[in-house]
Design a protein that fits this description.
With 291 residues, this protein is of the alpha/beta class. The protein contains nine helices and 13 strands. It folds into three domains: 62 residues, OB fold (Dihydrolipoamide Acetyltransferase, E2P) (Beta Barrel); 143 residues, Rossmann fold, CATH 3.40.50; 58 residues, Probable gtpase engc, domain 3 (Ribonucleotide Reductase Protein R1, domain 1, Orthogonal Bundle).
Length: 291
């Protein structure tokens, strides 16, 4: 029995990196019967086949630190939420949605502002908003090769997933970090101002300077089903220190008088952009049907 990490899954085959090399595996029927599926990022026990030592079967999925549904991946240490300073237009609501998804899964969110060469001033504004929220922020330009050393330090010895709109430059950043990958990149459509998806399947790559990184499609959606209105403010870390000073216990920080969070927004201690997005997400969570 060998232990390894699933680094790729395609068409029912799982490629498991072990000390003996990469083994092509099928999963046992017991997983299907139990409603379980091995995921990229899973630490697993595998059994080699008697006929071919380069093939095997996944026998056991070891306990996961976390799991995501879209895309289906496991055991992430940090989520690099990538936003372009320009082209495509920054979507800070999506950034906040992804940060909430990470916070709820106990994964560290890191904000990466790419394409700084296209609009440095707005890139600095985005940096200010998220540094004020307490998040690590790295400003880079994949095209000009700016900020790559700082990004390498953040990625070193961690298992990381990149998230964000298509077109913000995730694959371009990965190519700068390790040029032999040669990942496909896509331009932003002039008509729609949106990026074209270039990643087709999820894969876990080993970084030459230590750590692993996912290249994955679909990590641009908000897994909000389990986030209730009551828990939302706890997922905005800059709000937490002020909540005890609100006049009312259980303050929603939306319409209540004597709200310390709203006062912090007025004084600039909390970024208004973050608070406005909180209000949007609070209304969505409040209206969410509970089945």
């Amino acid at each position: 029995m060998l232990t390894g990490t699933i680094i790729k899954g395609i068409g029912g085959f799982y490629y498991v990196k072990t000390e003996s090399g990469c083994i092509e595996c099928r999963s046992r029927g017991k997983f299907r019967q139990a409603g379980e599926t091995p995921l990229v990022g899973d630490l697993v026990h595998i059994q080699l086949t008697a006929e071919d030592a380069s093939k095997g079967s996944v026998e056991e999925i070891l306990p996961r630190k976390n799991v995501f549904i879209r895309p289906p991946v496991a055991n992430i240490d940090q989520l690099i939420i990538t936003v372009a300073a320009k082209n495509p237009e920054p979507n800070l609501l999506l950034v906040d949605q992804l940060a909430i998804t990470a916070e709820a899964a106990d994964v560290r969110p890191v904000i990466c502002v790419n394409k700084l060469d296209l609009d440095e001033d707005f890139g600095r504004k985005i940096t200010s908003i998220y540094e004020k929220a307490g998040y690590p922020v790295v400003s880079v330009s994949a095209r000009e090769n700016w900020g790559m050393e700082a990004l390498r330090e953040i990625l070193k010895d961690k298992t990381t997933a990149f998230a964000g709109n298509s077109g913000v430059g995730k694959s371009s950043l990965l190519n700068q970090l390790c040029d032999y990958w040669g990942l496909a990149t896509g331009d932003v459509s002039e008509k729609t101002k949106r990026g074209r998806h270039t990643t087709r399947h999820t894969e876990l790559f080993k970084l030459p300077f230590g750590g692993y990184v996912f290249d994955t499609p679909g990590f641009s959606s908000y897994e909000a089903g389990h986030v209730t209105a009551e828990m939302l403010s706890s997922l905005f870390p800059e709000m937490v220190p002020y909540e005890a000073d609100c006049r009312f216990k259980g303050c929603a920080h939306v319409a209540e008088p004597g709200c310390a969070v709203k006062e912090a927004v007025e004084t600039g201690a909390i970024a208004k952009e973050r608070y406005d997005n909180y209000c949007i997400l609070y209304a969505e969570a409040k209206n969410q049907k509970k089945w």
